[in-house]
Amino acid sequence: xxxGDTNIIHGSxxxxxxxxxxxxxxTASLAALSLLTLVLAMSPHxxxxxxxxxxxxxxxxxxxxxxxQFERATGHKLVIHFDSTPNxxxxxxxxxxxxxxxxxxxxxNDPAAKARFVAGPTIDIARVGYGxxxxxxxxxxxxxxxxxxxxxxLAAQSISTVPSSAAGAYVLKVFDRLxxxxxxxxxxxxQQLPDQIAPAVANGEVDLGVFLINTLIAPGVDLVGPFPxxxxxxxxxxxxxxxxxxxxxAAKAFIGYLRTPAATAIIKAAGMTPG
Length: 275
Fold this sequence. Notes:
Helix content is 36%, strand content 20%. By secondary structure, it is an alpha/beta fold. The protein folds into two domains: 164 residues, Periplasmic binding protein-like II (D-Maltodextrin-Binding Protein, domain 2, 3-Layer(aba) Sandwich), CATH 3.40.190.10; 97 residues, 3-Layer(aba) Sandwich (D-Maltodextrin-Binding Protein, domain 2). It has a seven-stranded mixed beta sheet. The longest helix has 15 residues. The radius of gyration is 19 Å and the shape is elongated. The two termini are 28 Å apart.
């Protein structure tokens, strides 16, 4: 799968399963430095830059709202390549020009990809858990316990997810833990993009959508709820500046902007938890 072929923003025009792996939380001094960098980047004397960035596909919703605000405030422009974790690793290690990343933490588990970015702690931007949706108005099945979720999955005629992504890989892991992996193979109707799951459910093409909650919130569908606590895991999106970026200060400024009240409000509205 290559989400990047169709998911690029030019300017404003447009975990490993089992345990949570996260970038180290920034210290107070690092946060203060980020804010200072942002202020400097917004200075009328700052040179406008074009930033090349890679990002997780499930961050596309909030970033499409945040990026234009940042561009208007600073004069900088961003070109963003959205993709799945395996493809993001390929992009990071390809030698392509790159200034920064806002990606699933799994990307930094790859030594070669991690080496592409400035050494030190990454800065977490958002995290989100997994859930289930049905078509608006349909009866909401019980998914409150692992056994209830298992029965709901077995009763469904069809299920939509993105198996080739890091998040989709965890969904498949949950199916395996519930002992229904084989049964689900015949039911899964895979999507290429996270934002294709909800429309497939809304149109009646599939019974259930199973993925990250923020990607499931859309017109025409109802959120049944999150995975039961015993099966829940948060996917963390973290950020870093490329070691060979020629626009490092502007890249730091964008990361700082992602932690401002305006940006975190958008992240929250998208169904994610900032930081």
